[in-house]
Batch of 2 targets.
Target 1
Amino acid sequence: MAGSSVLIVGGGIIGSGLAWALAERGVADVTVVDLDLAGVYASSELNAGGVRATWWQPVNVAACRATLRFFAGRAAEFGFREAGYLWLYDDPALWATALEKRRMQNGAGLDVEALAPGEIAERFPVIDRGLEELVGATLSPHDGLVNPNAVRAFYRRAAEERGARFLNRHYAAGVETALVAGAAGARRRVAAVDVVEVAPGDPADDDGAVRGILTRHHVPPARAVGQHRIACDLVVNALGAWSPIFSAKVGVRDVTEPVRRQIALVDVHASDLPPRVRLAQLGMIVDPSGLYFHPEGPHVLAGYSIPEEAPGFDFRYDGDAFFEGEIWPRLAHRASAFERCRHVRGWAGLYAVTPDRSGIAGRVAGIANLYEAHSFTGRGVMQSYAIAHNMAALIATGRFDDVDLGPLARDRFDDPARWVPEALHI
Ligand SMILES: Cc1cc2nc3c(=O)[nH]c(=O)nc-3n(C[C@H](O)[C@H](O)[C@H](O)COP(=O)(O)OP(=O)(O)OC[C@H]3O[C@@H](n4cnc5c(N)ncnc54)[C@H](O)[C@@H]3O)c2cc1C
């Protein structure tokens, strides 16, 4: 039986960030296990790269603001661009709420502007259709875009430089718990995690093998090359959309659901751009229909969350049907630049969705040495630094540091009054 003082299960941007933050604090013997550190199906490798502190819940504002400041300090390395978020509104009631929340956001130093309908096309000439529907827009200049893969790579590299171990192709398959006596009576703790080591795949079908395991939650015997029981003082569930599978192994019923989200890359004809439109300089634009888009290298990245999407570990990209049915009509409805545009390709990844659309971070009640940080819906990249830094502080000192993640404790779901309903999600 191998040992580790802290075992982080899941090496996405959250698990990698936490390994780094713990190692930075001098916590020795940190191990991260992941089935696939390449992250072919990890949300951390499949997201839109939008980062903003402009939320409606103070804890989400604070966590994202701290993370964006960290990104700004390494802007070149992370490809961080303070290009802004333009959020369009067509519903007077929502717009009134946005203006009210803007006071809280600007109290936190976000400098969010409120644009009247007439200013929108003036400041953003790309928005030249359906203007009569709009009642206003917020422009948050310090938000923007980042390269999430570069951020995750930094967390991992910096963690490894400080002694953390990352075990690739290690699938957490089981949990051994034990009762320990304490002053307050016997408590359950995780004694060890059972990990199946998975054979390196045949390049031709490795993708399928990883996908099979991540959708069926089981390693076929033919793929297993080893079984390890990793004893640990402390365990962190950082499994994103897969967190409920692990929680169930320790008898915790999770509220998180995996939900497919799709993204399309689109090409625009330069000759179709209205004269003042500089696509490459835009940040993120969010349409009232739920469509969002931003420049992505030579392309435009556009996403839309289908409201009826059923939960499930589904990675199928609907291809032209998604582009033609969901993306193109919304783009062309708002901007003539997209009247003629080309679908390049696209992909699907998972949001880890909670009932109130805020993440889960803290200790797991009832299990003495189990912690968790997961279910950040569409917000995991932009909260990653604050989550990592403050979870590391909690683990090392018993207290959060600069951002109080207390509101994100899982037990809030026992009492609807403590939910953290985040409405400004896409
Ligand atoms: C389409 C899309 C767009 C998004 N856009 C944005 C955005 O613009 N901005 C933003 O901030 N966020 C965005 N997000 C959300 C963001 O990507 C996630 O919140 C974040 O990546 C979650 O990171 P994670 O580390 O918790 O999970 P993941 O990155 O999913 O990592 C979980 C890891 O667990 C591993 N794993 C699973 N089961 C096991 C097991 N039993 N044993 C070992 N390993 C296992 C997987 O291999 C994976 O590597 C988007 C997500 C999607 C899908």
Note: The CA atoms of residues 35 and 169 lie 4 Å apart.
Target 2
Amino acid sequence: MAYRDLRAFIDRLEAAGELVRITAPVSAHLEITEIVDRVCKGPAEHNKALLFERVKGYEIPVLINMFGSPRRMAWALGVEDLNELTERLSALIRPELPRTLGQALDRAGEMWGALRAVGLKPRIVHNAPVQEVILTDERATLSHLPILHCWPEDGGRYITLPTVISRDPETGIRNVGMYRLQVHDERTLGMHWQIHKGGAEHERKAREMGRDRIPVAVSLGGDPAVIWAGSAPLPPDVDEFLLAGWLRGKPVELVQCVTQPLEVPAHAEIVIEGYVDPEERRPEGPFGDHTGYYTPVDDYPVMHITAITHRRKPIYPATVVGRPPMEDYWMGKATERLFLPLMKLFLNEIVDINMPAEGVFHNLVLVSIRKRFPGHARKVINGLWGMGLMMLAKCIIIFDEHVNVQDVSEAMFHALNNVDWARDVIIQEGPVDALDHASYQFAFGGKIGIDATAKWPEEGYHRRWPKLIEMVEPIRKLVRERWEEYGIR
Ligand SMILES: Cc1cc2nc3c(=O)[nH]c(=O)nc-3n(C[C@H](O)[C@H](O)[C@H](O)COP(=O)(O)O)c2cc1C
Ligand SMILES: [Mn+2]
């Protein structure tokens, strides 16, 4: 299921009663945040996508919270339920999961190859709605965009739901990332690509190669699968538009930028073109972040705007992050579901993974495994720490396969019962998320792996591991059948 653009998705949401048009005038300064925060954390029936049609001081409407529920997130990626993503990707990797790392590497290669081969590479078009209006030189300013000031102590206004496009200066391979941008002035943006991310790697390479500019483009809007794909942690040499094409079942249509050697989604609402000078840095922040804390000021690269193109009547998409759960939690859930088969490709003992909202992704990863040998939990902990952005996971807890890790209460019950805190933990230092404020140094700190599986004699446990209490089925059935008779109401 492919949406042509953001409007097609809005139509679908509206037809299903999943979108509210707000015609009351509202301010882009804090007011929208408070509304969205209530909608994200309030009763499910209030949790709708919001289209603010009258944002004070602007003509352009703001769309927010389109991904903010499991149902809308699933619809955005062309499925009815997020678990279907796991099935779809498993089907692409089938038949059997490989046993050895060598095979696994081949299979991962094959998988990306398969994406390329199914003809879902982006397609270049020459006529693009996003270029109906072209503003260059001094006309290319941000002044007409309803960019939000999200939280009271934010350092300014931020573009919060962008699709940032750049190319590896060496290989030319495209990267698409979702990195917030702070408005420094009407023609300059702070580029918050963190050091572990694709864009930052392009910047490092450009600096080493002595380049004075990296072209960048920021697209806003388009098919929601295209927007979401920017947040997907793909390997560095895989173009996120390929993944978006596969999700849509149709290639993403791209158009050549007007002032930069890059292509952007033709059906986007707005595109900001420009460049980053790899030697330039400016203070960025503070920003009320998805950790629920303000990320303090730090030096980040700067994007200089060379052109802005947009549709005749564009819609500005945004999100507000903050203390979870908010919209980005569901975007991360989609990633978790989609990447589960990929993680199983390398660690085929994994049964399920849950990154609960309280852990804001990198703080807590619950994993159930089919335990087959002594030390198996530790193998999985170390394996995950070696896999892409999982390197940033601060706490990984491993469970036996019968534990439903999607139920955090059930998982905690088993973990707290099963762990000897002197013996069943690995404490290590390594890379941590750039947003982690607990680590004593930036991006480097401690992490813990916890083995909450039942312990074996081969692991040095020589007592008898107890059995879980469970009632026998005949008695359950008996009580079920006689329940009315007992008169307990
Ligand atoms: C709403 C939202 C905002 C995000 N903001 C940032 C950000 O400002 N900087 C950053 O490095 N990552 C941010 N991320 C996470 C990245 O998008 C994510 O790590 C993605 O995998 C990066 O793409 P890359 O692997 O191609 O670099 C954000 C994610 C979401 C969902
Ligand atoms: Mn990437």
Note: The mean pLDDT is 95.
